[in-house]
Design goal:
heterodimer, A: 288 residues, mainly alpha, MetI-like fold, 15 helices, 0% strand, B: 317 residues
């Protein structure tokens, strides 16, 4: 009696418990995504409906928020978008190039003081941004770079985010040396080995670097707030903030609409490079 | 052939020296090439990290407003900070409260979900992706704006509460609750530590569990005796990472409070106060001192974690 009962229980349990698990996980997922979906749907609702409607289906459906939001700051939102893209794009190019160069040196070349520099590189990874913040600001101020995009982009060409140097070093160390050696015997210079062999093989690490640099720069608010104060040079982050400040309750719909638009690049990357993102996080502990 | 012909006069001398000189010049060339690759990073280190760190150490002992020359004031900034600045004390307290409430909750949730997901579930990658999305978007201004609305007086939360007849307050506008909306925002972003936990769980050999099950260990004791000890390095890693990043939270507090740290300084995060001192009041010496104290706190916490790790982190040897 007990035996059959136990058998039956054991047979039924995996199915039942996995169903319960799925239901709980789905509920959790819905609860987590609900605010995001609500914002998306609210951006298509007329202003006066947003506060009375919890639902996700916009009825009546309107694009008015997008139309109004686009020009709400007297400068078209497309300009902020272009500004953000320029800054993020330059940051990506600079970071990938300079970090890959340094990483190749650390991973494959021998040189004097290598250990010291490597230790310093690791040391700067955990350094809070704020410790260098004020002298950097003073330096850029004296160079006359405040209110230009230079303070936001030039440092990226000098591998300031040494975390990515480390990431790429680790990746290159995992690559077989045979190809380098063969190329060296054929008389290839270090530069040719780097450019023709290492860069193509290290592409996954470089893509991870590019993706996270892009998202971080796109989402950055603090340094953009410091360095950009003219509305024509505003980025998406700054424009949204200005929007919040000028907002009266009646423009909530347009605020949501522009917020949705600001999230599109990160979301596209999420959909397109999900596997890359997850691997990047799990292998290195990158924060999203 | 031409070479051998040409060497004859000087050849006898150079025939003795080449090995060493060649090696020396080869060595020099190797160094030169390596430093060429390293140059951008090295310049960056000097110009954008090392130099500024030293400069901010110096500035922290001065009064400086960006326009007139820095004036040496000794330890004054630090003394004021710890004895005469109630807003600094408040900022420290608000931030510490935020960090030590949100990070343990976030990591516990991350671990719990990771364990559920690790049990050979179908559609694992779908759940993983959905739970990760908030981590990816969470740092943006748009999400902070969303949060402001969700927890506002007539926001989403209060609309839900109204359905069951509860009249909610403005969670963002009430000093007692404002910071906890930001705590929730951090917990909401449990996806990235969850992914790191998942990677760690995958490393634990199946045989350990099977052996324990044969020995009659229940689910609970398997969790405490196998999963947790073997996961301690990952827990440790996540803890250090999240504490450091939580201490530097800025954007969310800035957007939610409109840059003030209000209501009644209840969301005055450390970095927000640093920003106000440095770039609203232009007390750049004072802000530099605050940055160094932040470095001390972050460094100290990391050090404590590392020292204590001997006692609770289990490394397979």
């Amino acid at each position: 009696m007990t035996a059959t009962f136990n058998q039956a229980r054991r047979a039924r349990r995996p199915l039942l418990s996995s169903a319960i698990k799925h239901i709980l996980l789905l509920m959790g997922a819905v609860a987590m995504l609900y605010p995001l979906l609500w914002m998306l749907s609210s951006s298509f609702k007329p202003e006066n409906v947003i506060f009375q409607d919890l639902g996700l289906i916009p009825r009546p459906f309107t694009l008015q928020n997008y139309v109004a939001g686009w020009t709400a700051l007297n400068v078209p939102f497309s300009l902020f978008y272009v500004n953000s893209f320029i800054i993020s794009g330059l940051s990506v190019v600079g970071t990938v190039l300079s970090c890959a160069l340094a990483a190749y040196a650390f991973a494959r070349l021998d040189f004097r003081l290598k250990r010291l520099w490597f230790a310093l590189m690791l040391g700067t990874i955990m350094l809070p941004y704020h410790v260098t913040l004020i002298p950097r600001y003073i330096m850029f101020f004296q160079l006359g770079w405040v209110n230009t995009i230079l303070p936001l982009t030039i440092p990226h060409f000098f591998a300031v985010n040494s975390f990515f140097v480390f990431l790429i070093v680790q990746f290159i160390r995992g690559l077989p040396r045979d190809l380098d050696d063969a190329a060296a015997i054929d008389g290839a210079s270090e530069w040719q080995i780097f450019w023709r062999i290492i860069v193509p093989l290290a592409a996954p690490a470089l893509v991870t670097t590019a993706i996270f640099t892009f998202i971080w720069t796109w989402d950055d608010f603090f340094s953009q707030l410091l360095y950009l104060s003219r509305i024509t040079s505003y980025t998406v982050s700054l424009a949204l903030r200005a929007f919040v400040d000028s907002q009266d309750r009646s423009s909530l719909g347009s605020l949501f609409a522009m917020s949705v638009i600001s999230l599109i690049p990160a979301f596209v990357i999420f959909v397109a490079a999900q596997q890359q993102l997850v691997e990047g996080v799990s292998k290195t502990g990158l924060k999203g | 052939m031409r070479q051998t012909l040409q060497t004859s006069p000087a050849g006898s001398i150079s025939a003795v020296t080449p090995p060493r000189r060649l090696r020396a010049s080869k060595e020099a060339r190797k160094n030169l090439v390596a430093y060429a690759f390293l140059a951008p990073w090295l310049l960056g280190l000097l110009i954008f990290s090392a130099g500024p760190i030293l400069a901010s150490a110096y500035l922290s002992f001065t009064r400086y407003d960006l326009l007139s020359a820095p004036e040496w004031t000794g330890l004054n900034n630090y003394i004021v900070m710890f004895t005469r600045d109630p807003r600094f004390a408040k900022a420290l307290q608000v931030t510490a409260n935020y960090v030590f409430v949100s990070v343990p909750l976030q990591l516990t949730l991350a671990l719990a979900i990771a364990i559920v997901l690790n049990r050979g579930l179908r559609a694992l990658s779908l759940y993983r992706a959905i739970y990760y999305l908030p981590s990816l978007l969470g740092g943006s201004v748009a999400i902070a704006i969303l949060w402001r609305q969700v927890f506002g007086l007539d926001g989403l939360i209060n609309q839900v509460l109204a359905l069951v007849g509860i009249q909610g307050i403005s969670w963002i506008g009430t000093p007692e609750t404002a910071v906890y909306t930001l705590v929730l925002l951090r917990i909401w972003q449990f996806g990235s530590p969850m992914i790191i936990f998942l990677a760690g769980l995958k490393q634990i050999p199946r045989e350990f569990y099977e052996a324990a099950e044969i020995d009659g260990a229940g689910r609970w004791s398997r969790f405490w005796r196998i999963t947790i000890p073997l996961l301690t390095p990952i827990i440790f890693f996540n803890l250090v990472l999240q504490i450091i990043s939580a201490f530097q939270t800025f954007t969310q507090a800035f957007i939610v409070s409109g840059g003030t740290g209000g209501p009644v300084n209840s969301t005055l995060f450390y970095t927000l106060y640093l920003y106000q001192q440095g770039f609203s009041a232009f007390n750049m010496g004072y802000a530099s001192a605050m940055a160094w104290v932040l470095l001390g706190i972050v460094g100290g916490l990391t050090l404590v974690s590392f020292l204590s790790s001997k006692y609770w982190v289990y490394y397979e040897s």
